[in-house]
Design a protein that fits this description.
The complex is a heterodimer. Chain A is of the alpha/beta class. Chain A contains three helices and six strands; from the N terminus they run βαββββαβα. In chain A, strand 5, helix 2 and strand 6 form a beta-alpha-beta unit. By secondary structure, chain B is of the alpha/beta class. The longest helix of chain B has 18 residues. Chain B has one domain: Rossmann fold, CATH 3.40.50.12280. The N and C termini of chain B lie far apart (45 Å). Chain B has a four-stranded parallel β-sheet with strand order 1-2-3-4. Classes of the chains: A alpha/beta, B alpha/beta.
Chain lengths: 147, 178
């Protein structure tokens, strides 16, 4: 696929139309990187067209405190991918219906894959949170009754 | 081996109980990583853990004696492990299998528990990444030795004394104070 092309979100939204599959969303933190002129975070989207088998990767750069529109209304898979990127990097996806932690636990503070997070700082969890909230909602829409 | 003060009948009862315990240590497999594969191999016919009397692997903590923690434990997993340990009946023992369960292993990072002894008490540690079935056998034999030296009558005596102290403190005055 080669190097990802740096675009803004409007350009990304246009190119979406020719790609039907979103493969992955990856976050990058450029804090302290030499020869980097852009903003602090990068969000890389990988797309695929299943008819022509063409793949494309696009990078959107955003700074700290900025927000990026969600793609979860177009690609349902983006729901969890965006949750993971928010969990690990703190990139906020505006318009996401349930932006909560996916990999780290509920009592975790901070975002561990940021360069300024101390890598060995451990945080304990006292009680498990309910991980079935989304599943229960889906079951109720199908017609099951959640007790 | 046994307490000589406990007398003939109590000593023999002790021996009988610990003999029964050490030849029927039923493990609960808490497998989260590659050590669990080695544990399966230990259980299956080539190595055959049932030669030591660990005949059944129980998948409910209420019927198990030995909690075999084989694999990496993250902080997200830790409350589950602790609850399972609390659900097990007394007497209970814990085996930490492999480097991850003993010390966190090479996962020296923000999400991994640095050894399960930060959460629950551990009786036997096994090294290795992952540990071989022979190492698990060695740990089981060591655990059997440990069980053999535990006195059932003394545990019973301690519990009765605790109950007696509780009963003595339960006078009408204390009761009304509560």
């Amino acid at each position: 696929m080669g190097k990802p092309e740096i675009v803004d979100f409007e350009k990304l939204f246009e190119t979406i139309k020719s790609f039907d599959v979103l493969i992955d969303i990856v976050g990058v933190d450029y804090l302290g990187m030499e020869n980097h002129a852009g903003k602090r975070f990068g969000v890389i989207y990988h797309f695929k067209n299943t008819k022509t088998m063409e793949r494309r990767s696009l990078k959107v750069e955003i700074g700290e405190g900025e927000e990026i529109p969600t793609l979860s209304k177009i690609y349902p898979i983006a729901d969890w991918l965006e949750r993971e990127v928010w969990d690990q990097f703190g990139v906020v996806f505006s318009g996401h219906h349930n932006l909560k932690r996916l990999l780290n636990h509920a009592e975790f503070e901070g975002h561990p894959l940021r360069k300024d997070y101390p890598a060995k700082k451990r945080q304990e969890l006292s009680e498990n949170d309910n991980m079935l909230d989304q599943l229960e909602k889906r079951l109720e829409t199908i017609g099951y009754k959640v007790i | 081996m046994q307490n000589e003060k406990s007398g003939f009948f109590a000593g023999k009862l002790d021996e009988l109980v610990s003999w029964g315990r050490l030849h029927s240590l039923w493990p609960f497999p808490y497998g989260t990583a590659c050590c669990a594969i080695e544990f399966m191999s230990t259980e299956s016919s080539r190595y055959d853990l049932s030669r030591l009397g660990s005949e059944f692997v129980r998948f409910t903590p209420r019927q198990a004696d030995v909690l075999a923690v084989s694999g990496t434990i993250t902080f997200k997993q830790a409350p589950i492990l602790k609850r399972i340990y609390e659900q097990m009946m007394e007497p209970k023992w814990v085996i930490a299998m492999g480097a991850c369960a003993c010390s966190g292993g090479f996962y020296d990072c923000y999400c991994t528990v640095p050894g399960i002894d930060a959460i629950i008490p551990v009786d036997i540690y096994i090294g290795g990444c992952p540990s071989r079935p022979e190492a698990f056998f060695d740990a089981m034999l060591e655990l059997q030795e440990k069980v053999k030296n535990q006195s059932y009558m003394e545990e019973r005596k301690k519990k009765l004394e605790e109950q007696w102290e509780n009963l003595k403190s339960l006078t009408l005055k204390n009761y009304l104070k509560q």
